[in-house]
Write a structure and sequence with these properties.
Length: 261
């Protein structure tokens, strides 16, 4: 129960809150990290994280399961192990907990990404404001947890030409929502996501661009603005980047605009 304040009155009423719990991610039963997430689509999150953080190094995912050291109920379904049958390199455990707000801040740099990822060879799709607006509207309609709690992020896959939304995932962390989307695409054999757009409900940070680049998206759009490093990274990746997608307006940051546009 909560007390709702407004216009000189106090009303006692029930409320719905988003769930946040730790989840341990393992790769071939080796500890990778513990992340704070909203339960649901846990396999997608674990797979997407391993891919976007460069842990798979081209190894195929052969299976995903809870725990692996005993009954999943004993760990309350909060341990997920991704299996490559030992083909992926053994990961170095990430010290500390990956929070829902910032991802692995400071764990990578643009130069490190350039060594790991090649620039996208397909030109970014044309930015169509009508399609972006439609995608944002459709994605918002597919966020039941936001409707209930008002305090959760979302990531969506969409067609940049039409604005058709193909998938939406929600999580208290922006990075987790993106990893869930990417993990689903990988499990369905739909990566790289060439020519597709990725829409995020908040700001666009370096880590969000890193994940979009690793998955091969052609266009990344955010409701809020990008950081300077996010813009530099998108341009290095040959990834289209749009920020401040609100109502019927948006800012295009990458590719760099030229005079006359």
């Amino acid at each position: 129960m909560i007390a709702r304040l407004g216009e000189g009155a106090v009303r006692i009423s029930p409320d719905r809150l988003v769930v946040e719990e730790p989840m341990e991610i393992r790769l071939d039963d080796h500890l990778v990290t513990t992340t704070m997430r909203t339960p649901g689509n846990d396999y997608e999150l674990a797979v997407g994280f391993c891919l976007t953080e460069g842990l798979l190094e081209g190894a195929a995912v052969h299976g995903v399961r809870y725990c692996g050291t005993g009954p999943a109920a004993e760990t309350e379904f909060n341990v997920v192990s991704v299996s490559t049958d030992g083909r992926a390199p053994q990961p170095e455990p990430r010290l500390g907990t990956t929070t829902s707000s910032c991802g692995l801040c400071g764990s990578a740099s643009l130069e490190a990404l350039r060594k790991r990822l090649e620039p996208l060879t397909t030109a970014p799709p044309a930015v169509e404001l009508a399609a972006l607006t439609r995608a944002a509207t459709e994605a918002r309609r597919q966020q039941p947890l936001f409707d209930e709690t008002g305090s959760i992020h979302a990531a969506a896959v969409f067609d940049p030409a039409t604005g058709d939304v193909m998938m939406v995932r929600e999580d208290i962390g922006r990075h987790n929502a993106v990893d869930k989307v990417i993990g689903r695409l990988l499990l369905d054999g739909q990566l790289p996501a060439t020519g597709r757009g990725l829409l995020v409900s908040g700001r666009v940070s370096f880590e969000i661009v890193q994940k979009a680049w690793a998955a091969g998206f052609g266009l990344l759009a955010g409701v809020s603005g990008p950081s300077a490093l996010a813009v530099d990274t998108a341009r290095a990746a040959n990834l289209g980047l749009v920020g401040f997608l609100r109502g019927r307006s948006a800012n295009v940051y990458a590719p760099p605009p030229t005079l006359g546009q």
